[in-house]
Amino acid sequence: xxxxxxxxxxxxxxxxxxxxxxxxxxxxxxxxxxxxxxxxxxxxxxxxxxxxxxxxxxxxxxxxxxxxxxxxxxxxxxxxxxxxxxxxxxxxxxxxxxxxxxxxxxxxxxxxxxxxxxxxxxxxxxxxxxxxxxxxxxxxxxxxxxxxxxxxxxxxxxxxxxxxxxxxxxxxxxxxxxxxxxxxxxxxxxxxxxxxxxxxxxxxxxxxxxxxxxxxxxxxxxxxxxxxxxxxxxxxxxxxxxxxxxxxxxxxxxxxxxxxxxxxxxxxxxxxxxxxxxxxxxxxxxxxxxxxxxxxx
Length: 297
Fold this sequence. Notes:
Blueprint (H helix, E strand, L loop, with lengths): L8 H5 L17 E9 L6 E5 L2 E4 L5 E2 L4 E4 L3 E6 L5 E5 L4 E2 L7 H14 L3 H9 L14 E2 L9 E4 L4 E4 L1 E2 L4 E7 L6 E6 L3 E4 L7 E8 L5 E9 L18 H13 L6 H13 L4 H7 L1 E6 L1
Parallel strand pairs: 1-18, 10-17
Antiparallel strand pairs: 1-4, 1-6, 2-3, 2-5, 5-8, 6-7, 9-12, 11-15, 13-14, 13-16, 16-17
Helix pairs in contact: 2-4, 4-5, 5-6
């Protein structure tokens, strides 16, 4: 079994009684902002308050007991609470993070994740969730964007499992299709009113394709993808655990692919993080892939 020295975020940067800055991970972190949504035309945003300290908050903001999350007019958010429930909040309501008991399993996952990422959290989150260009003053129907996916070039996709993708913008229903670069008819993989899809790749032959997401209004996004076998995925060496089925290994593998240069595996990494966030309720995966700057008409 590979061995690594893993520091908790509490030990790495703060004393025992010292709280981290607003939105940073700390010894009592048990909650986070996982989604922020803003109505078109709203001139306010989401803020987090601790005593007299106030600052704007985005998805991925870590929260401490006693922190108050306050949406501005026209703003709503979703908070991953200490009891692992998701609590929606919208103006004029607020959410205060309660005190919670420390559990060994949560502390172990915190130490593990922060040991990998360190304090370079925002850069990692931007790789998975940043929306290039400020969409706050745009009408969503006029764009279609995959968070974290911008100028990444051809993407390699592991065809042995489901590909999870998400997007913002355009109008429903959406069609997701693939067409092989050497010709042939487009294969429609899904039609959905949602802004996410779980695509089965096992029935698609290996090769180079163009993946297209197209809204009902004709706005579309095209992404070149290469379907590969599982054995062609870069191997994670020196993992902190040798249990590939464990949540820790899967998180570390996804982060390895996400942060790997060049960014050929960005979409694959985001897919794995989305599965961890949605199916396994992984606190750190949820913080990494949380959406932000979503504007509704």
